[in-house]
């Protein structure tokens, strides 16, 4: 009896040690992941000369408002912010709609050429976006869309990754019995998608929406190529103008980067909460 209690106590102690070690590792990993963002905030509150000081200053300064004002005076921040928000929101809505519709079709319907089309889709995911920049620009020029928001939105309103992601999720999450029941009730393809598939696909839609919005918000190369009107610059292109030719005010640059990051944090916090809540609900149902 005494030996059994000692064994149980030893096992319990061993489990507690493993739990403490695991939490310490997770805390260290979290601290390492958050440090670049903390450094961004610190440098946004300091002068440019403080960035090169040694040892580095890790406490907040008093120059945040001055740096933000310098950003507003140096570039058309609010105009670029509005342009980026318009492009990112429109592209996100279109990607979520078209990719979920196409992914649901690939997952639950049979049609001629389905497998070859899906293979071609997977192949396009392996092609770097830089290779398509020149032909895409030529196409936009022939359509007369250079320096227009259509050139930013239309090419990105359907993505191979989005279709692949929604197809994989719909294959395992949308029961075939629901599809058959909907067909018996007289539902067409779009009604099956809208009334049956979409409620089940909400977690995948939340992830795809967050992923697409962040990608569209941070996109720099394609807007830099296609936009030549400063009034239509997106935020990333406008922020690149803060870098001077001979000198750069890094405090101002960091303040601009901080302002551009805040909407992403808000979107991520709101969307991830919905995303995690739906996953937890699905896990409980299982």
Which features would summarize this protein structure in a list?
286 residues, mainly alpha, MetI-like fold, 0% strand, flat, disordered C terminus, transmembrane helix, transmembrane, transport, Sugar ABC transporter permease, MetI-like
Q: Determine Rg (CA atoms, Å).
A: 25 Å
Report the CATH architecture of the domain at 75-241: Orthogonal Bundle
**Could you state the order of secondary-structure elements as H and E?**
HHHHHHHHHHHHH
Q: What is the average per-residue confidence, as pLDDT, rounded to a whole number?
A: 84
Give the C-level CATH assignment of the domain at 75-241.
Mainly Alpha
Topology diagram in text:
Blueprint: H1 2-44, H2 64-74, H3 77-108, H4 114-125, H5 133-143, H6 150-153, H7 160-173, H8 176-184, H9 189-200, H10 202-218, H11 221-226, H12 235-240, H13 250-285
Helix pairs in contact: 1-13, 2-13, 3-7, 3-10, 4-7, 10-13
Family: Belongs to the binding-protein-dependent transport system permease family.
Pfam families: BPD_transp_1 (PF00528)
Subcellular location: Cell membrane
């Amino acid at each position: 009896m005494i030996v059994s209690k000692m064994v149980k106590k030893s096992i319990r102690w061993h489990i507690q040690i493993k739990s403490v070690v695991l939490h310490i590792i997770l805390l260290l990993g979290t601290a390492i992941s958050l440090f670049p963002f903390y450094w961004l905030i610190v440098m946004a509150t300091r002068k440019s000369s403080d960035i090169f000081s040694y040892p580095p200053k890790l406490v907040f300064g008093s120059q945040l408002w001055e740096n933000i004002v310098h950003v507003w005076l140096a570039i058309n921040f609010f105009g670029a912010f509005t342009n980026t928000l318009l492009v990112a929101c429109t592209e996100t809505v279109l990607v979520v709609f078209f990719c979920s519709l196409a992914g649901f079709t690939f997952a639950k319907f049979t049609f001629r050429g389905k497998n070859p089309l899906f293979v071609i889709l997977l192949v396009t995911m392996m092609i770097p976006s830089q290779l398509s920049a020149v032909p895409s620009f030529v196409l936009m020029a022939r359509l007369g869309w250079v320096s227009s928001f259509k050139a930013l939105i239309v090419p990105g309103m359907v993505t191979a990754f989005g279709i692949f992601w929604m197809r994989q999720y719909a294959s395992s999450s949308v029961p075939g019995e629901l599809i058959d029941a909907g067909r018996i009730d007289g539902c067409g393809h779009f009604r099956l998608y809208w009334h049956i598939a979409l409620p089940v696909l909400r977690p995948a839609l939340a992830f795809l929406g967050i992923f697409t919005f962040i990608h569209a918000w941070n996109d720099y190369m394609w807007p830099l190529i296609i936009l030549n009107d400063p009034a239509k610059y997106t935020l990333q292109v406008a922020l690149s103008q803060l870098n001077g030719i001979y000198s750069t005010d890094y405090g101002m640059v960091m303040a601009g980067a901080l302002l551009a990051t805040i909407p992403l944090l808000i979107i991520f916090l709101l969307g991830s909460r919905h995303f995690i809540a739906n996953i937890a609900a699905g896990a409980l149902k299982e």
